[in-house]
Amino acid sequence: MEFTVVFQSIIIITLMIMIGALLGKTTPLNDDTRRAFIQVIVNIAMPCIILSSIFHVEMDDQMFKMIAIVFGLSIIINLIGIGTGFLFAWLFHRDSNKIREIAILSGLGNTGFIGIPLCAALLGPEGALFAAIFDAGVDVTIWTVGVILLQKNRKFAWQTLKSMVNIPTAAIFVGLITAYFQLKPPGLLIDLTDRLAALAAPLAMFYIGMMIMTLKRGQVRRSVNHIWVPISVKLIILPIASIFMIHFFSLNTVLVQTVLIQSMMPTITLASILFAKYSADEQMGALTTIFSTLLALVTIPLMVYVMSLFIH
């Protein structure tokens, strides 16, 4: 992977976030605009990236085997991140009541909003497909381990799995079924999904830029003592641990690069919404998402460089 491509993608992402921040000045991010952005990104653009990737990748038994490997690695990396975050939170914030939030923020990355579009830009349709499968693993971790951590009684409830039944997950399922039976969609549908897929990255970055404009100085001062742990684990410790772990396996190069890039993603955007649902610290989730996203513009190229030293 050429560093010029990585830096160019990061620069483009930065510029799109800046445009979003400018939009946030004239059109403040309220419940209506937030809902509109999320609906278009999650229910239209991201499913189209997934379907477009499947339409443009040759699917065979070997590809399905690699998909299963990516899904398994996603679960493992997510759990390592959560466990590491829990350990660091216990070491540095032992008396805090934010340990469960820190653990979740440390392990779960923005593999959908940022990860899928970035992998599509850097690695093409195959990378986008693997990125979507990795994101599915993140969803499974969120609505099982994540929910168990956040619930007061620490019990698993089957109704939480309903949240995994969403349009991106359905797109993966439908796309893989059609690929398995070698059903080729009409060219018009392929062209439509390609065009709608291009919406994902700009809209996601605009949304993050608008979120930045909602920050208040007092909120930042109150939460900064807690957010450095999940940001450090998510952006530096977890990617390095993932690089060392995968270094010992002989896997497809695009698969390895996709999994490692996904491990470098900033904290998941869904965090504040998830925390609000389970009466956790919603503000801490939002601030960690925003600051980790901004810092990721620097750490992603750095981690890609570290990756290049081990993965050839």
From TrEMBL:
It is a multi-pass membrane protein. The chain crosses the membrane at residues 6-24, 36-55, 67-90, 102-123, 129-151, 163-183, 195-215, 227-249, 255-275, 287-311. The keyword Transmembrane helix applies. It comes from the Bacteria. It holds the Pfam family Mem_trans. It is found in: Cell membrane. The keyword Acyltransferase does not apply. Its main location: membrane. Keywords: Cell membrane, Membrane, Transmembrane, Transmembrane helix, Transport. PANTHER family: AUXIN EFFLUX CARRIER FAMILY PROTEIN, TRANSPORTER AUXIN EFFLUX CARRIER EC FAMILY. Belongs to the auxin efflux carrier (TC 2.A.69) family. This is Permease. It comes from Siminovitchia thermophila.
